[in-house]
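Students often ask what a 'structure token' actually looks like in practice. Rather than answer in the abstract, let us consider RTE1-homolog, a protein of 97 residues. Its sequence is given first.
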Amino acid sequence: MEPNPNSEHHLMIGHIAQQNMPIDPRRARFPCCIVWTPLPVISWLVPFIGHMGLCREDGVILDFAGPNFVCVDNFTFGAVARYIQINKEKVWLNARF
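Now compare that with the structural description of the same chain:
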């Protein structure tokens, strides 16, 4: 009997998130999303420049605020203004060799 490769993968990444967790802007939960917020003054002059972050499967924002520094669940420049949700099934299918 072969071990299930998917169960091993879930153990490696600590799979504890719900499968279809909804986006909840009131609680700042954006599962599997890329999030964006404008930068004060700079975004007023050049609207497409802003600050980006990545979200885990449980919706927690990972904000790369500086070299060797990651803010967890605290977006540096304010609330999320835009988000793009990524289809994780397509990402995992394309990432496998």
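One point worth highlighting: The radius of gyration is 16 Å. Ask yourself how you might have guessed this from the sequence alone, and why that guess would often be unreliable.
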